[in-house]
Amino acid sequence: MRLGIDWGGTKIEIIALSNEGEELFRQRVDTPRDDYEGCLEAVRFLVEAAEQATGQTGTLGLGIPGSLSPKTGLVKNANSTWMNGKPLDKDLQRVLGRPVRIQNDANCLAVSEATDGAGAGAHIVHAIIIGTGSGSGIAIDAKAHLGANGIGGEWGAITVPWLKPEEYPGPDSWIGHKGAIDRWCSGTGFQLDYKDRTGTLLKGHEIMALKRSGDTVATAVYEAYVSRLARALAMSANLLDPDVFVLGGGMSNIDELYADLPAAMEPYIFSDTYETPIRKAMHGDSSGVRGAAWLWG
Q1: What tens digit of pLDDT does each residue of 149-164 get?
Q2: DSSP state at residue 160
Q3: What stretch(es) of the chain map to CATH 3.30.420.40?
Q4: Beta strands of the chain (E only): which ranges?
Q5: Among 64, 102, 194, 292, which residue's Cβ finds the most Cβ atoms within 10 Å?
Q6: CATH code given to domain 2-109+286-294
Q7: Which Pfam families match (predicted)?
Q8: Is the pLDDT of residue 297 over 80?
Q9: How many CA atoms lie within 13 A of 269 on its CB side?
């Protein structure tokens, strides 16, 4: 049995998978925000619940919104900032009495979709999270590409490329750079763009409902979002040239994106032809936690 945990900013979820990928157990709890020890205890509780329910023990993989530094072994770049600077793998091994494999949550999405999802069989899968934040992970032959410094796939930290004059320098982000992909290509960025133009904060699905009804402001917000995401994807196409892009997170449920992004990417891609597919994550919200379990694949 393989256990996977997705440690997010709002919830911590566990899944138990058989060797064939069958779901045996799933449970989630609210994340004890700003409470590192409380989060360790939540993981312990979930592991015990899964193993009691299934009568089996399992390997454990963990997806986090950050990564372990190869130099220090400590968590870095996590937007759940209370885990930064912590020896998470060692602390979990102490709490659970077993080794734990840890990867960035976007890498877990990539591994999941490359293993038995929308990117199954592809050599290089670039998985993009467009949810509360925006980041990415890379899977090569269904294995996470961490990189020499533990920052492989940190696409969200880059400024949206080919900025237009009216976009420069872009809004601030928690990363510290203006106009970062994480800020502009996330669902949060989509909502804030609408708020900046109207003074009203709406949810993404509400903005899309207005756009579909012909509202001119909502349409302009959507078109700006498509342009920025397309430029960010085109940068990856020129650098990485993946076999497939897989989109996850709340914004990935906007069906229009899959029709509109290819044409918006085309002017920025350094090739006479470009036919790489852009697909929705097959496992949806489960991809991250499934990918964590497959870290022991």
Answers
A1: 888 999 999 999 999 9
A2: P
A3: 2-109+286-294, 121-281
A4: 2-7, 11-17, 23-30, 59-64, 67-68, 75-76, 100-104, 124-130, 134-140, 143-144, 244-248, 278-280
A5: 292
A6: 3.30.420.40
A7: ROK
A8: no
A9: 20
Residues in the chain: 297
The reply to whether the predicted model has a pTM over 0.70 is yes
Q: What is the dihedral of CA 262, 184, 253, 257, to 10 degrees?
A: -20
Residue 60 is given by DSSP the state: E
- Pair 85, 36: CB distance under 8 Å: no
Cα atoms in the Cβ-side hemisphere of radius 13 Å centred on 134: 28
What single letter denotes the amino acid at residue 135? G
Element (H, E) at 273: none
pLDDT band, residue 133 (cuts 50/70/90): confident
Tell me the pLDDT tens digit for each residue of 58-116: 999 999 988 899 899 999 988 788 999 999 999 999 999 999 999 998 999 999 999 99
Tens of pLDDT, residue by residue over 228-249, are 999 999 999 999 999 999 999 9
Distance CA 49, CA 72 (A): 32
Nearest to residue 66, comparing CAs of 53, 77, 57?
77
What is the residue type of 136?
Answer: S
* Distance of alpha carbon 297 from alpha carbon 58, whole angstroms: 12
Please state the CATH superfamily assignment of the domain spanning residues 121-281 in this structure. Answer: ATPase, nucleotide binding domain (3.30.420.40)
Mean pLDDT of the chain: 94
Place of tokens 């502009």: 184
Residue 85 zone, left/alpha/beta (φ > 0; ψ -120 to 50; rest): left
Which of 271, 285, 261, 252 has the alpha carbon at shortest distance from 108?
A: 285
Distance in angstroms (rounded) separating the CA atoms of residues 209 and 111: 33
